Amino acid sequence: MTKTAGTATETVETDAGTARITWHGAKKARLVLAVSHGAGGGIEARDLVALAEVLPAHGVTVARVEQPWRVAGKKLAPAPKTLDTGWRGIWPALAKSGLPVISGGRSAGARVACRTATELGAHAVLALSFPLHPPGKPEKSRAEELLGAGVPALVVQGANDPFGKPEEFPGGPFELVEIPYADHGFAVPKRADISQDRAVSLITDAVAEWTGSLG
């Protein structure tokens, strides 16, 4: 494990290859929030970075997780089955503290969290920019993954996300927070009534409040 100011980086061997965890520790942690990236990006996504900066002060240790394909330098994610294999292999490192672990991620990472939550014993699921369907193909719904998570879940979704706008989501056992004007990466246009910084703070505020409500 490599440590720098306020963070530590750990590599983990899985059946899908070598994964990497960047830890952002809380001084008096009561929860661990593990968040992974999407199918085309990394842990430098604005929402993952912001959560790592904000949540430790709320008693939540944040683990930003890089799937093996990303660590290996590949540009596109493998099949969902392989992503799930990687997440399963990472889980013991996430749970080693004995604290409850929230399984989370953005986009494809959110799907992985939902699909594996029950079997891994996740405390809850955080789904950032859940890709409800491919853009322009609402008939190819992935709602069953979200509805089948089996644990408390929070969806944080941009109002203009082409992978699924908030009003497209079915009713179900999850909470949903809408980020005005935001797209799939939570970017907001310059003409929007809110700034980019404000949009990101809405995300962190919502997640901080939600994690505070979890038993």
Please, could you describe this protein's structure?
- Helix content is 30%, strand content 25%.
- The chain has six helices and nine strands; from the N terminus they run ββββαβααβαβαββα.
- Helix 5 links the parallel strand 7 (124-128) and strand 8 (153-158).
- The two termini are 30 Å apart.
- Helix 1 (46-54) crosses helix 6.
- With 215 residues, the chain is α/β, with parallel strands linked by helices.
- The longest helix is centred in the C-terminal third of the chain and has 18 residues, at 196-213.
- The protein is globular and about 45 Å long.
- It has a nine-stranded mixed β-sheet with strand order 1-2-3-5-4-6-7-8-9.
How is the topology of this model organized?
Elements lengths: L1 E3 L2 E8 L2 E8 L6 E6 L9 H9 L5 E7 L1 H4 L8 H16 L5 E6 L1 H13 L3 E5 L14 H5 L5 E6 L16 E5 L16 H18 L2
Parallel strand pairs: 4-5, 4-6, 6-7, 7-8, 8-9
Antiparallel strand pairs: 1-2, 2-3, 3-5
Helix pairs in contact: 1-6, 3-4
